[in-house]
Specification:
Helices cover 9% and strands 46% of the residues. The longest helix is centred in the first third of the chain and has 18 residues. It is globular, with a radius of gyration of 22 Å. It contains 4 helices and 19 strands. The chain has a single domain, classed as Carbohydrate-selective porin OprB (Porin).
């Protein structure tokens, strides 16, 4: 996903900034007068108003790096810092029986390392795709309908949450979602590694790094999904729009010609009374993309040309696909394990996410119950990303991809990272997270790094 450069609304002067922030806060107060009240157990809702605010600050010291070619997509090895800020409203309304509409306006700002989103496979902050500079920007994050068709069986209570009106539904049901939302709102959930605002920050830990899911530059699209819940099984399918050009913001509305399809099967199980889930995901994209073999051939046949030759050979519709497995498993009442692994074909350029063709990540999440801090969370994760032979050969020939490319000093090695965080519940509804990440071979170049990243995050939700 590209660092967003084309906001829907740009707020560049202090008067407009104060006006929009004031309006946002007034809306929060007027729609939800009891912001910090506890939800009543098993209460039914016809409306929902919830909010979140997150500030994430990160710094990396200087790291080892050889001299780089004038044209490159390399992360600056000098010491640097970055930040992101987001404030989001999640408003929901029940329109009719089991039919709901949701709308999310969001205000964002932020600046990434090196002032551009380049230089590694798995970026260190999952919020950065929506940030676009130091000026606050307002945009529509989501606008979608959800319809539930009850099919019988026992009943399930779905508690109130972000974009979720509290409801009682049949255990066996069909849920249809349509409109403007993220593919990850429906697919690839994981209890222990799913949200960069409250859990792990690194891209490779809150979803599959190799999941090139269709979306605009901010991570959202238009489309429809269907989820069939039947006993301990869930079957999901969906189609989403992608960008009109890879990694850009403008939506390609030709959803019958260019799209991202995904299919997921989920099964819930218990092992010694401890719950777990396994998900299998298959996805396929169809879009105008450049193949790496064509880009490499063009680069070798035209010495001295701009090494970003993917733009010269983006000349036809191609498909890209991948398959992954997602596991979550309780180990104790307050500790859980997660694992994700995915392999993509890797023959074409990145469509909408990042520069990874196969990925694996795993980790643990535990609550602070044993040290009398039940609302604190500790997490630790390890991940590894790899490139396909076609993408690797392109980079070894001196090519530059959309986010990475170190030129002639590129020496391939898998990108490896580790992350550990402690989330401290400072007071009701407010958390401070301290986070450390170590990245070996950033952008798959063993001549660079290791890179260490230190971060803190303030998050509130109500």
């Amino acid at each position: 996903m590209k660092f967003t450069k084309h906001p829907i609304i740009k707020i560049s002067d202090s008067f407009k900034m104060k006006k929009i922030l004031t309006s946002f806060l007034i809306s929060c107060i007027s729609i939800s007068p009891f912001l910090f009240a506890e939800d009543e157990p098993f209460a039914q809702e016809n409306t929902s108003a919830k909010y979140q605010i997150t500030y994430n600050w990160q710094e990396h010291p200087s790291f080892a790096s050889p001299a780089l070619a004038p044209l490159n997509n390399s992360l600056n090895p000098s010491s640097d810092h970055m930040y992101t800020f987001s404030a989001t409203a999640h408003w929901g309304l029940r329109l009719w029986d089991n039919g709901e509409i949701y709308f999310n306006p969001e205000v964002v700002s932020g600046v990434p390392f090196s002032n551009a989103l380049i230089g590694m496979g798995s970026y260190t902050n999952g919020e950065i795709t929506r940030a676009a500079g130091t000026n606050l920007q307002l945009y529509r994050q989501r606008l979608f309908l959800r319809q539930t068709f009850n099919l019988g069986g026992e009943t399930d209570y779905i508690p109130s949450g972000f974009n979720q009106i509290a409801s009682t539904v049949d255990k066996n049901r069909l849920v249809v979602t349509a409109g403007n939302f993220s593919t990850l709102d429906v697919f690839d959930h994981n209890k222990y590694a799913n949200d960069p605002r409250t859990q792990f920050m690194n891209w490779g830990n809150w979803t599959y790094a190799a999941y090139d899911y269709a979306a605009d530059a901010r991570g959202y699209g238009w489309g429809a999904t269907a989820e069939l819940y039947y006993d301990d099984w869930v079957f999901r399918a969906g189609r989403m729009t992608g960008p009109i050009e890879p990694n850009l913001l403008e939506v390609d509305w030709q959803i019958l010609k260019h799209y991202g399809d995904q299919f997921e099967i989920e099964h819930k199980h218990t092992i010694n009374d401890l719950e777990g889930k396994i998900r299998l995901l298959y996805w396929i994209n169809r879009a105008v993309l450049a193949s790496f073999s064509d880009a490499t051939a063009y680069l070798l046949a035209n010495p001295g040309t701009n090494p970003q030759t993917i733009f010269n050979v983006r000349n036809g519709v191609k498909t890209k696909f991948g398959i992954g497995v997602n596991v979550e498993q309780e180990l104790t009442d307050n500790t859980g394990f997660f694992l994700r692994a995915m392999k993509a074909d890797g023959k074409t350029e990145t469509y909408a996410f990042t520069e990874v063709d196969s990925s694996v990540s795993m980790g643990l999440l535990t609550k602070g119950i044993s040290w009398n801090r039940p609302n604190d969370t500790v997490g630790i994760a390890l991940s590894e990303n790899r490139l396909s032979n076609e993408r690797r050969e392109y980079l070894e020939a001196g090519g530059i991809s959309y986010f990475i490319g170190d030129g002639p000093n590129f020496k391939y090695k898998p990108e490896e990272s580790s992350e550990i965080f402690y989330s401290i519940n400072l007071m009701k509804k407010i958390w401070l997270t301290l986070d450390y990440q170590s990245i070996l071979n950033p952008a798959y170049n063993s001549n660079r790094g290791p890179m260490n990243v230190y971060a803190f995050r303030i998050h509130t939700e109500f």
